[in-house]
Amino acid sequence: MINAQQSWSPETYLRHGVFVSLLGEPVVQILAPKAGERILDLGCGEGILTDKIVASGADVLGMDNSADQIEGAQHRGLKVVCMDALEMKFDNEFDAVFSNAALHWMSPLSKVFENVYRALKPGGRFVAEMGGAGNIQTIRMALYNALMRRGIDPAQYDPWSYLGDSSAKMMLQRAGFETRSVTLIRRPTDLPGDIGPWLETFAGSFMQAVPENEHAQMIDEVRDALQPHLFDPYNKWVADYVRLRFKVVKPV
Ligand code: BEZ
Question: What CATH number is associated with residue 40?
């Protein structure tokens, strides 16, 4: 992923991507935040779930490497920092680290897991959900085909790292964690509207491989390729999401 670069606009995210945060609410329940706990929300984006964790009375720091998303989270009055997870230097500071739908944008994940491990106090927990092996595979392949037809190597523009449950477990254990649960869950997901805005919101890295005046044509091509697979009889787009959900603990 030499050229993979995704940019985020809080307005676009709120219009077309807010379902990603809403579907992450069960992960907040697994986190079970408590009043007074110090919690890091890694890849907090615009802060929709960060807000829910704050409601528990925990002292929450949101972190994201998108300055635009962090600005959106600041407008909600959240405590946030703009930083790359690969650069974070927190040491024995947090009772828990939480992350929803963010880790698959980060690479190498082994380094991120090491940094999370260091950030936690002994006994601290890391509760996360991310895209897992096979996530949005049909969409990803249609994007690959659209770039290959143009003679472009798609792997260079692919921003996503998806792990299976066994490799995630191994990587987390190698970082020092004790694993409590690591599960791969198929979650076909109704999109709120057409696939076009989804592609514009989340596949920016692939789009930037082609000149701007070809973007609309590329979206049409990808939509046509996906229609027989992801457009259901009730006229809804259903994306082939797969979640990797885990809870791991830093030993005391
Ligand atoms: C996800 O949450 O799995 C995801 C969302 C947008 C693009 C890619 C993956």
Answer: 3.40.50.150
